[in-house]
Structure prediction request, 308 residues.
Amino acid sequence: MSELADSWLRSLRAANRAAATLEAYQSDLAEFSAHYGGDPSDAKRSDVENFIVFCRDRGLADATVARRFQSLRQFYRWAEEEGEVDASPMLRMKPPKVAIRPPDVIDPADFAKLIEACRGERVNGERRKTRQNKADWGRGFDFECRRDEAMLRLLWTTGIRAGEIMGIAVVDIDLNAETFTVTGKGNRLRIVALLPQPAEAVDRYLRVRRKHEAHSEPWLWLGRRGRLGQDGLRQMLERRCHDAGIAPINPHRFRHTFAHEAKKRGMADDALMQVAGWQSPQMLQRYGASAAAERSREAHRRLFGGGS
Prediction:
């Protein structure tokens, strides 16, 4: 099994699939193999169906079950093309239905509290009466404050993925052109607008970054010892949410929120897909669901709020 799985993953890497996609495929195939208990090339349709039922019975989210179904379908499609199986056992199988629920978005008031926390104006939900002592700025305190505010403002105004923001290099930032470059899924590059407030925040961070002992590192975001690790964004959000006195926020909710706000403000679908780096309108429909629901409520109140 491991040889066949390795061969499949190798072909996916050759096709330049994203690292997160490879990890999900590998995990899903391993879960199926453990449940089936045999060589997947011998599995029948009923074995796959039993696995899907098993996943549902475990209480996994609809989206997770659907992803595992798609992972297995991709695997058997490849195995059939490679002659490892005569025919995919998933032929004519229909994917499990996924209930479309509008994703949660971040309240603008909570975002304002996060910014206050970055500036030292709010600690554990309590607003400070005075700002941090000005002497603290320039001694290290301001480094994390400026960095975290810049990261938050980029996420809020662009909705870029967690992996994309953590992969930004210093050379990717063009303050004069007010743009920055990100590397999305499939190593696809795109240029994103750098709006005035995040541009100011990034500029303030870059000025204090030059004093960091690891300033020669190519990566934009630095921690205490060098490049901020992959978990750096999650850890920063945990700390700032605690300081702001708000419920924890997953980094991906910024992406939900950006799509929600973009559709509320009338951004065209093709423009939103370009900014967010989506290749399929299916994701646009999911992420824009909350805005569509809000617009429908507003229309309902406008048309019927005066009574009949």
